[in-house]
Amino acid sequence: MSVSERLWNETEERRTRLELQSRENFPVATRLLPARHREHLLNVYGYARLVDDIGDEAPPGERAGLLDLVEGDLDRVYAGERAELPVLRDLSRTITACRIPAEPLRRLLEANRRDQEVARYATFDDLLGYCAYSADPVGRIVLHVFGAATPDRVRLSDKVCTALQIIEHCQDVGEDHRNGRIYLPEDDLRRFGCTEDDLTAAVTPTRLRGVVALQAKRAAGLLDEGAALTGRLRGFARVAVAGYVAGGLAALAALERGAYDVLGSASPPRKARLLAEWSRTLGRR
Fold first, then answer.
1. What's the pTM value of the predicted model, to 2 decimals?
2. Predicted confidence (pLDDT) per residue in 264-282, tens digit
3. DSSP string computed for 95-106
4. How far is the CA of 201 from the CAs of 39, 169, 232, 265, in angstroms?
5. Structurally, how many domains does the chain consist of?
6. Which of 68, 84, 117 is the last residue of a domain?
7. What are phi and psi of 181, to 5 degrees?
């Protein structure tokens, strides 16, 4: 079923959302959370996943129109009207219950509009600017779900989310290139002597592994800074955020274990490592 068909099909949209969520490296809903939190997080996930799918999977000529369609329905929700799209009807309950502001939801739409126009990033700073739209809003919404959105927590959450986005870019180098995008900074690729042909190799060339390792190191630094967020949260918010941080740490460990061969036999994060990092992160003060 196409993305445009899924927009209107409530059963298919929810099934797809749950299937995709179960395969994510950084799942947004854990069995440890109460049902009310799981439902809100899955509603947020469903919206973010659908917006991403429009930007990646819909026919190129339809993407802008579909993103506009979603934004129009988002406008209806914030105007107090009934949403037309199933995913927005689900999200509207979360928006109301958790008092989620419109800005982070609109930023996710803007990130995917940028993806239709910008395929490469000259510097790491440019990539950070993109992550402020594609990743950071998700963490801000999660903080609102738990009623924990304060300026100091948002600042740390942004670091965690940017780190997770960069890690995902490292994992998806080949897939992103097949979709016509390169998120590895161009100046780093030049510095390591990489060419675009390196991105299509069956096994990651050594020079490209160096670029990926550099991004992973930067992500690790951001994640280490942002992990202080767990010490400023309590209860289920702390459990959830520690899970996101642990997911990032486990993914970084997997990249290192696989010698940063992201084009060949990439190593998935190990569940045991995830649980160990989760426990360690929960113990941080």
1. 0.90
2. 987 778 878 877 877 778 7
3. HHHHT--HHHHH
4. 41, 17, 44, 12
5. 2
6. 117
7. -130, 145
